[in-house]
Specification:
The protein is an alpha+beta fold and 177 residues long. It has four helices and six strands; from the N terminus they run E-E-E-E-H-E-E-H-H-H. The protein folds into two domains: 109 residues, Nucleic acid-binding proteins (OB fold (Dihydrolipoamide Acetyltransferase, E2P)), CATH 2.40.50; 31 residues, no CATH class. A five-stranded mixed β-barrel has the order 1-3-4-6-5.
Length: 177
């Protein structure tokens, strides 16, 4: 089995350059910097790697529109090495990452609270209530005793309305959900 997969999280080092090739397809080139931090003899050491990224089609348009210098991105893709002959007659190589998926980091000025989501996701879900809140509002809480029968509680309106619908005397208790 073979696998050619790259996942990087880093900062854009220059604004993407987008162009259209003769076939009409868009392509964007940009560079991503990733940091590596480690301790050596009690001293903090850092190293920076720069990666050349190529994005095609709609992904190129999105990167060109939203990713600017300094933006945090996650890039998922594959390695590809190109070889060509330079003007001086020497063979040249360049290894690039062909982007297959890109997640945008938080926009400048966003709080760190929403920073874990891509800005497109955060914007799309801002108008909708969270799924957990929606489900929690619709599903009543039912307290059960050791035998699995509902316990009637007078404190909660929801508990009373649910327990009224359950026949606790029958051997086959049907739960209301």
């Amino acid at each position: 089995m073979n696998l050619n997969k790259v996942i990087l999280v880093g900062r854009v080092t220059r604004d993407p350059e987008m162009r259209t090739i003769p076939s009409g397809q868009n392509v964007a080139n940009f560079s991503l910097a990733t940091n590596r931090v480690w301790n050596k003899d009690g001293q903090k050491q850092t190293a920076v790697e720069f990666h050349n990224i190529i994005a095609w089609a709609r992904l190129a348009e999105i990167v060109n529109q939203y990713a600017k210098k300094g933006a945090l991105l996650m890039v998922e893709g594959r390695l590809q090495t190109r070889t060509w002959q330079g003007q001086d007659g020497t063979n040249k190589n360049r290894t690039e990452i062909i982007a297959e998926n890109i997640q945008l980091g938080p926009r400048a000025g966003q709080s760190s609270e929403s920073g874990n989501y891509s800005s497109a996701y955060a914007k799309a879900s801002a108008d909708k209530p969270a799924v957990a809140e929606t489900i929690q509002d619709k599903v009543p809480t039912i307290n059960l005793d050791e035998a699995g029968n509902p316990i009637e509680e007078s404190d909660s309106k929801e508990s009373n309305s649910v327990s009224e619908n359950v026949d606790t005397d029958s051997p086959e208790t049907v739960m209301p959900f």
